[in-house]
Write a structure and sequence with these properties.
Blueprint: H1 14-19, H2 28-47, H3 78-89, H4 111-123, H5 134-150, E1 165-169, H6 172-192, H7 199-205, E2 206-211, H8 216-225, E3 232-235, H9 247-259, E4 263-270, H10 282-291, E5 295-299, E6 324-328, H11 329-332, E7 340-344, H12 348-354, H13 364-367, H14 387-422, E8 426-428, E9 436-441, H15 452-464, E10 471-475, E11 478-484, H16 492-513
Parallel strand pairs: 2-3, 2-4, 4-5, 5-6
Antiparallel strand pairs: 1-7, 6-7, 8-9, 9-11, 10-11
The chain binds pyridoxal-5'-phosphate.
The site of pyridoxal-5'-phosphate has 14 residues, from helix 6.
GO molecular function: carboxy-lyase activity; pyridoxal phosphate binding
Protein name: Aromatic aldehyde synthase
Pfam families: Pyridoxal_deC
């Protein structure tokens, strides 16, 4: 604390004393007390989570009138803040951790994931390179090897394999961007080697392929990486292939681009698309990318974790032909957001694209190439100790526990599917592979908008009840309801209750239209 008399004589010591009236920044005993209070708050939140409407019902701009316009000058108490959380924040929360959440894809939380998050927050290092916290880098390498082995990824993708390895990114969006930057680096270096064309000319030739079902993050990666818009290819899919890429369509597009003097550079295939969990055929596509020296990335953000179950691993057949592979532990593997895992078969193009050695970070271990510096495998410099979350999840549940968890969701989705199939008022739109069901209420014959209004109204009416929350997509023009089982606490009774609510609302609608 500043001694008296150093305040320039303009203010008394009283405000300074007041300013210290709140918490000490990191006093261990104060931390213990407040953290216990927070843990109690969180446990009570989880206990009562089903009492909230799953989807928040607040109107845009609801919060500002409820909170002060300016930051408090004086310290406040945690009690008063938690009171505001209860009365002002929770009503504006959509409860992703509710067992009645079936929207989008899940964002898993678990006790293990939460504890790992706490520990990571407590240690709070910024592990940009090995020396900044050797344990952070080394545990991350080991965890990526652990999960890589569970997925039965080829040895080259592991840190023990020689050329490649895995890294934790924040999101699958960052993962595909990093992969594309590596591919871009590789291609531009190759094309400019002879000195005949400039970097920008080389860049303008690169073509990126993905399916029209790929996540929008592929498009964003193209925007950021400077791939010219005229060189983005969204390969057409349809009900005929269950929305997977037809390799013949890909091959034809590559051929056309080659004839036009362009350079097919990058393919992003998806295992488990966001709309309908379509699975692109990795083997057939990988054979084509290898033939042309293209970079192939696989986005398995949602479905990747399921492939640690031997009976589902075949969805990754062909992964030995690809250059990079991504799955989100934070979607469906019990690990709190964020924790997206990216593996590359060869780290050199990635390092060529993203390495820098500023003087203030130089150190003997890095210079002797004895260590991995993950700052060179990602966009930001700073990075959290996220591998702790994975480590706690893997140890507190075990691979078998995680498999049982995944299988339970798939089983519940299968039961939901049976209910839908047994009721002739509905139809399943594409075959179900994981724990997402795409279905709709059948429109009456000759319905002018092919069931769009009927199903959009049904969806909104169900969500308005607050008893569950699910969402929609459009598949080849068909308005589709998406029901994804994947919350940590969803049980059979929740799924059955959700089906009841959907039916009640459907009955009201169908009666109204009859
Ligand atoms: C959810 C999802 C993404 C985006 O994930 P982020 O980690 O939020 O970037 C990308 N691809 C697929 C297939 C997804 O399902």
């Amino acid at each position: 604390m500043a001694p008296e008399g150093t305040t320039n004589g303009t203010s008394s010591a009283a405000p300074a004393a007041n300013a210290m009236a709140g918490l000490q920044p990191l006093d261990p005993e104060e931390f213990r007390r407040h953290a216990h209070q927070m843990v109690d708050f969180v446990a009570d939140y989880y206990k009562g989570i089903e009492s909230f409407p799953v989807r928040s019902e607040v109107k845009p701009g609801y919060l500002r009138p409820l909170l002060p316009d300016v930051a408090p000058e004086q310290a406040e108490s945690l009690d008063s803040i938690l009171e505001d959380v209860r009365s002002h924040i929770l009503p504006g929360v959509t409860h992703w951790q509710s067992p009645n959440f079936y929207a989008y894809f899940p964002s898993n939380s678990s006790t293990a994931g939460y504890l790992g998050e706490m520990l990571s927050g407590a240690i709070n290092i910024v592990g940009f390179h090995w020396l900044a916290s050797p344990a952070a880098t080394e545990l991350e390498m080991l965890m990526l090897d652990w999960v890589g082995r569970l997925l039965n990824l080829p040895e080259a993708f592991l840190h023990t394999g020689g050329t490649g390895g895995g890294v934790i990114q924040g999101t699958a969006s960052e993962a595909v961007l990093v992969a594309l930057l590596a591919a871009r680096q590789k291609w531009v270096a190759k094309l400019t080697q002879g000195g005949d064309i400039s970097q920008s000319e080389a860049l303008s030739k690169l073509v990126v392929y993905t399916s029209d079902q790929a996540h929008s993050c592929v498009q964003k990666a193209c925007m950021v990486a400077g791939i010219e818009k005229k060189n983005w290819r969204f390969l057409k899919t349809s009900f005929d292939t269950n929305f997977a890429i037809d390799p013949a369509v890909f091959e034809e597009a590559v051929k056309k681009d080659l004839e036009a003097g362009l350079v097919p550079a990058f393919l992003c295939a998806t295992v488990g698309t966001t709309s309908s969990t379509a699975i692109d055929p990795l083997k057939a596509l990988g054979t084509i990318t290898q033939e042309h020296g293209m970079w192939m990335h696989v986005d398995a953000a949602y479905a990747g974790p399921a492939c640690i179950c031997p009976e589902l691993r075949h969805h990754l057949d062909g992964v030995e032909l690809v250059d990079s592979f991504c799955m989100n532990a934070h979607k469906w593997m019990l690990t709190n957001f964020d924790c997206s895992l990216l593996w590359v078969k060869d780290s050199k193009p990635l390092l060529d694209a993203l390495s820098l050695q500023p003087e203030y970070l130089r150190n003997a271990a890095s210079e002797a190439s004895l260590v991995v510096d993950f700052k060179d495998w990602q966009l930001p410099l700073g990075r959290r100790f996220r591998s702790l979350k994975l480590w706690l999840v893997m140890r507190l549940y075990g691979a078998n526990g995680i498999r049982a968890y995944l299988r339970k969701h798939i089983q519940l989705a299968a039961e939901f599917e049976e209910l839908v199939r047994a009721d002739e008022r509905y139809e399943v739109l594409v075959p179900r592979t994981f724990a997402l069901l795409c279905f709709r209420a059948k429109p009456p014959a000759g319905d002018p908008d092919n069931g769009r209004t009927l199903n959009a109204t049904l969806l909104e009416n169900v969500n308005k009840t607050g008893k569950l929350f699910f969402t929609h997509t459009v598949l080849d023009g068909v308005y589709t309801l998406r029901f994804c089982v994947g919350n940590s606490r969803t049980e059979r009774e929740h799924v059955l209750a959700a089906w009841d609510v959907i039916n009640q609302e459907a009955e009201k609608l169908l009666k109204g239209s009859a």
